[in-house]
Amino acid sequence: MPLKDLPAEQRPREKLLARGAGALADSELLALLLRTGYRGHGVFALAAQVLQACGGFAGLLAATPDTLKAIKGLGPAKRAELLAVMEMARRALAEGLRTAPVLDAPGKARDFLALQLGERAQEVFAVLFLDGQHRLLQFEELFTGTLAQTSVYPREVVKRALALNAGAVILAHNHPSGVAEPSRADEYLTQTLKSALQLVDVRVLDHLVVGRGQVVSLAERGLL
Known about the structure:
alpha+beta; DNA polymerase, domain 1; Cytidine Deaminase, domain 2; 5 strands
């Protein structure tokens, strides 16, 4: 059924304005962005189809242009709008890390990394480069590997830290399996990078392992 044919109190826009965004189901919230469906499928059906294909909002936020292009009913305009919303979410989280020391609100760094890495199909090693007051200078994905592992080169991490004049870093990588439990290899890599960065007076504040819905801190585990 087209949105215009629904009773006013059931239309997502009117419902949101009257009761707040929290009153909308996931499919209703997405339908508000999509606005229309495609032939034989209403906008709610399309919204449900997108969420199912991506594995919910977490997967949608990590979706690539190619992933969205493969979903029937998402034309260029709809794909562009969804990608723009996802990028705004990432930038909003990054802004919070640039304006205050990361350690003052560690949850923000975890949320940011979960959004960036949590649904990636390949293992990615990334670094939050911080200034002397532990505010974000730059987030960079430095190495990408396979489903199970990636190769990390300490010299390249040191070079980027020096180029950005970083005073500290937070290391991060994802586990595509979805399980965020650190491995012995993760512990060894952390110590290797910590030793290399100490030579140029750059502190490693933490190494965060990102899974689906979970981010584990090696510092909190006493493994730093």
